[in-house]
Amino acid sequence: MRLFVAIALPPELANRASTILPTSLPALRRVKPENLHVTLAFLGWTPDEQIAAVTEAATEAAAHVPRFTLDFDRAGRFPERGRPRVVWLGMAAGAPSVMKLGEGVHASLRSRGLRFDDRPLAPHLTLARIDEDASSPEAKTVAAALEGLAVRDLRFEVGEIAVVQSVLSPKGPRYTALATVPLAHN
Fold first, then answer.
1. Is residue 106 annotated as a catalytic residue, yes or no?
2. Which of 37, 64, 106, 185 is catalytic?
3. d(CA 98, CA 95)
């Protein structure tokens, strides 16, 4: 099954985050509110018998990071220059804790010999992807809109991380938390 380890957003905050982008922006495939999350590690296809080891790795990493407040404070895009492909929200408060969590998850997965996307962590919240067939003016409109976008009051307490199954379908991905593990108590 396809797996990733992530910080899930509370439903109310996810609904607010999903409305940040103006509805008039063209050529966007928006992430459904229930699918919004901050990825800590993407494993991709993982044999069922390794789920327990993935959960152990997440548990080990979470045990070293106390609960924290995560605050999304700005919008951006990947790549930063040229034609945008992904629209995201960046973090202010809580970013160091997200990095520590992600690095801990990576180290724990690595120590168990589990395969995952081992690129350096760039924590963000993906809001939308720009259609591959978007016109140049449409892509420029999206890029320009992000420059002046105000992001306010998107903060929540992170108390756990999840091991999540991703099932792809023509209607979009469906995510199911297979396990949640608590962060350390302050």
1. no
2. 37
3. 5
Catalytic residue flag (residue 37): yes
> CA 130, CA 54: separation in Å to the nearest integer?
31
Intervals of the chain under pLDDT 50: none
Q: What is the pTM of this model?
A: 0.94
CA dihedral 58, 59, 64, 69 (to 10 degrees): 70
pLDDT in tens, 14-38: 999 999 999 999 999 999 999 999 9
Reported as a single tens digit per residue, the pLDDT across 154-175 is 999 999 999 999 999 998 899 9
Active-site residue identified among 64, 106, 124, 185: 124
What is the SS3 assignment for the chain? CEEEEEEECCHHHHHHHCCCCCCCCCCEEECCHHHCEEEEEEEEECCHHHHHHHHHHHHHHHCCCECEEEEEEEEEEECCCCCCCEEEEEECCCHHHHHHHHHHHHHHHHHCCCCCCCCCCCCCEEEEEECCCCCHHHHHHHHHHHHCCCCCCEEEEECEEEEEEEECCCCCCEEEEEEEEECECC
